[in-house]
Amino acid sequence: MLPPYVSRAHVLERLAQIFPEGTPNRVYCTRELAASTVFTALYIGAIEGNTVYLGPKHVYRMTHEQAAIEDAAARIAYRDVAKPSGAAVAGTRWYADNTREPIRDETLREGLVAIGAVTTLALPTTSGKPRYTLKREFAALFAPDLIGDDLAQAISAYRSAHLSPGALARVSIMLAGAGAGDDGVLVAFPNGETRRLAPGPSSIIAKGVIEVFAPRFLGSPAILWLSESGNKVVARDDRLAQRIGLQIEADKNLPDIILVDLAPAEPLLVFVEVVATDGAITERRQRAIHELTQAAGFDRGQIAFVTAYRDRESSGFRKTVSSIAWGSYAWFVSEPDHLIVFSGKPIAIEGA
To answer: By the 8 A CB rule, do 304 and 268 touch?
Structure first.
């Protein structure tokens, strides 16, 4: 009942194909530790229906030499390494014993189990017995003869059947952004005009802000200002800015996008910073923008600040989240219906 032998490198490459950008907890599902875990499960045949189970010990006791042995008898014998009486494995180990927790808590519980690729045997939490198996449909994606269009179709079918609607939506948005060509990213403004931005992740986020965020969260949105890296001004509406009394000049404190909601009696200005790698709306920039808008006669209640990211798992968010100003928001292209509120005031905690 063993699947065909495949290398850990093969598993690592395929995990990245199965779980693209936008997959929840993708890093836990696609890093080398995940590949080591899936490889070992395939190696011993810990696949749904086989009554063979994987434990973290199988993974951290694996050695380079053992992993290279393709013989079926050796693979079956390796199952016993998780037993209390299991013999030591010859060769150079992949991991130390203290890797048990990352394998169990991150790669398995928060990663592959949470996303439905791995199932668990019902055992007491204190039990040290192996309890994990790969779902059969997931394990089948690593077959060495599954390549090309057949592989692409199998991965697509797997995602549709096993990823949640929310996860599928995130993946679809991220794949759409990744498909932007060398000609750049075409952005449609609320008034029907279009602009083409330079290709790159920042432009994908900017497109999301203008085409998705603005109509979702503003009653009657308009674009006052749009710039790219290097302070290149792509669009500015001086006529509208003058009508509402705001003087806009290129300044290092200005964010990438300035939106205005014309629906309220008093217009709402939304200053949006696009973050692919760095540059959130910090408290210093927030103060500088407040000075600009106060000089133009705007009350603070008419000003909002948003830092826009590709995804909660993006390196840009992890790098800058600690510097986001209180009293502002964070928004993600991959989860367009939601905002994170960085409240600067005490609030009551409510149940979900």
So the answer is: yes
CB 44 within 8 A of CB 198: no
CA pair distance 231, 238, nearest whole angstrom: 17
pTM of the model: 0.62
Q: Which amino acid is present at 188?
A: A
Cα angle, residue 2 at apex, residues 101 and 79 outer, rounded to 5°: 40
- CATH code of the domain made up of 185-342: 3.40.1350.80
Output the CA torsion sign for 234, 238, 240, 242: positive
Q: Which fold has domain 8-174?
A: Arc Repressor Mutant, subunit A (1.10.10)
**CA distances (Å), origin 42, targets 5, 64, 70, 126, 262:** 8, 16, 11, 25, 58
Domain ranges of the chain: 8-174, 185-342
320 token code pair: 């800058």
Rg of the chain's alpha carbons, rounded to an integer?
A: 25
Structure tokens belonging to residue 145: 């003869």
Among 131, 165, 95, residue whose Cα is nearest residue 335: 165
**pLDDT digit string (tens) for the chain, length 352 residues:** 899 999 999 999 999 999 987 777 889 999 999 999 999 999 999 999 999 999 999 999 999 999 999 999 999 999 999 888 777 888 999 999 899 999 999 999 989 998 889 999 887 777 788 999 999 999 999 999 999 999 999 999 998 887 766 666 666 666 655 555 556 788 899 988 888 888 888 888 899 999 999 999 999 999 998 988 655 778 888 788 888 877 776 666 678 899 999 999 889 999 999 998 888 889 998 998 898 888 888 899 999 999 999 888 788 898 999 999 999 999 998 888 899 999 877 766 665 5
Number of continuous H segments (helices) and E segments (strands) in the chain = 15, 11
* Residue 248 tokens, joined: 């806009």
